[in-house]
From TrEMBL:
TM helices/strands, residue ranges: 255-273
Key word Transmembrane helix present: yes
Location of the DUF4350 domain: 39-214
Name listed for the protein in its UniProt record: DUF4350 domain-containing protein
InterPro entries tied to this protein: DUF4350
The keyword Transmembrane belongs to this UniProt entry's keyword annotation: yes
Record keywords, A-Z: Membrane, Transmembrane, Transmembrane helix
Protein origin, superkingdom: Bacteria
């Protein structure tokens, strides 16, 4: 027991030293694209959400956290503008129909996302993808009254998304990039308008800390008419109100989070030590034998029941990057334009496809939640790559 007390004392001292070191360690910049209104990281939307009152001085600002159908169907919304900034937007037919009713009544809906799916994408015939370019992509408004003297140009490829497909008979192009690809457009329904933007990163903190970012956002929002109400959608981006439980305080602070985990580990070690000292000998029971087929079936069933799309997607990304390293002797620590060009040359696969594949890998790697559509799209891209290169995957 004396030895155990010494062990506890040493562990406590080490824990204190570790916590002090963690507390004084500078925080690394989090480049994850969350688009969340409370996130002050580069790709959060804290600045935009807090500047809405200045951008829409005559409007009452309100947040919504229900699905599009539930928000519009109960007629609780007043005349105004509805704003959605999200990583992906997927609307079914019921969502779309209720939204169109709201727009036809003389209201405006403004949406911006990296990817579009569901009935919305099918009905409006829209698809989006990343522009392949060796340099940052420039873009500008089409309207001469809004057009900037010098085209907008941002670092970190935040403006490289564009609409690769749209209904040219119904859509009005409002902005386009250097390659004349549409990045911002509108659809008319009755007395109102639906605005779609392919570059949601332009509405983030990173963009709004620049003069160009502020100028673009102000002009883009100027298409929406003056109204008494502005609604900020939290549902599509999963930006629902945060947990207010006591544990949230621990998990919000990295040092306290590690202290929590280390404390659990310490308690577990203590319990294990005490059990080992006191428990009686337990007879060994031979485990049931399991065949390889049964094992694969069980593992597959577990993944299916958990619906852990993010885990599956991240594993697919890991295996693909390992394939790049092992078979093509490529470094995968920097997935930039040079890497894309090298993969295309070594594999003989079209550079446009490799660009789409790599951008999808980058997008998935940054996500904590992956939808069925995103997982299926990633899997199709990877399988197509293996097929074109004559491999069956890892």
């Amino acid at each position: 027991m004396k030895d155990f007390k010494i062990y506890i004392s040493i562990a406590s001292i080490l824990l204190i030293v570790y916590l002090v070191a963690q507390y004084n360690k500078p925080n690394a910049i989090n480049w994850q694209s969350t688009l969340a209104k409370n996130d002050k990281i580069p790709f959060g939307t804290y600045i935009l959400h807090n500047q809405l009152e200045k951008l829409f001085p005559d409007a009452e600002i309100a947040n919504t956290n229900k699905s599009i159908y539930n928000v519009f169907h109960n007629d609780s919304l007043q005349q105004g503008n509805y704003l959605i900034i999200a990583k992906s937007i997927k609307l079914n037919k019921f969502d779309f129909d209720e939204m169109v009713k709201y727009v036809k009544a003389g209201n405006s809906v403004f949406m911006s996302a990296f990817s579009w799916s569901g009935y919305l994408a099918d009905s409006l015939k829209i698809e989006s993808q990343a522009e392949y370019a060796k340099h940052n992509v420039s873009f500008n408004f089409v309207n001469s009254k809004l057009r900037a003297q010098s085209s907008y140009l941002f670092n970190r490829d935040i403006a490289n998304q564009y609409f690769s497909s749209l209904d040219t008979a119904k859509a009005t192009v409002l902005a386009q990039n250097y390659a004349n690809h549409c990045t911002f457009m509108s659809y008319s329904f009755g007395k109102g308008h639906l605005y779609l933007c392919a570059t949601p990163a332009l509405f983030t903190n990173y963009s709004l800390l620049t003069r160009q970012g502020n100028d673009f956002v102000e002009k883009a929002f100027s298409y929406m008419p003056t109204a008494g109400h502005l609604y900020w959608d939290q549902f599509q981006n999963g930006d629902i109100p945060e947990d207010v439980s006591p544990l949230r305080v621990f998990f919000a602070n990295p040092a306290l989070q590690w202290a929590y985990y280390l404390s659990l580990c310490g308690i577990s070690v203590f319990i294990f030590y005490e059990m080992k000292r006191r428990q009686r000998i337990i007879p060994v029971v031979e485990p049931l034998q399991n065949s390889t087929l049964e094992f694969v079936t069980v593992v597959g069933q577990v993944y299916y029941e958990k619906r852990d799309n993010a885990n599956i997607a991240h594993k697919k990304v890991i295996y693909l990057l390992e394939h790049f390293r092992d078979y093509y002797r490529l470094k995968t620590n920097k997935l930039d334009n040079e890497f894309i060009d090298t993969v295309s040359k070594k594999t003989g696969v079209a550079i446009e496809f490799i660009t789409d594949l790599v951008h999808s890998v980058i997008f998935i790697s940054a996500q904590h939640h992956v939808t069925d559509h995103e997982l299926i799209r990633l899997n199709k891209l990877i399988e197509k790559f293996y097929s074109q290169t004559g491999h069956n995957g890892k």
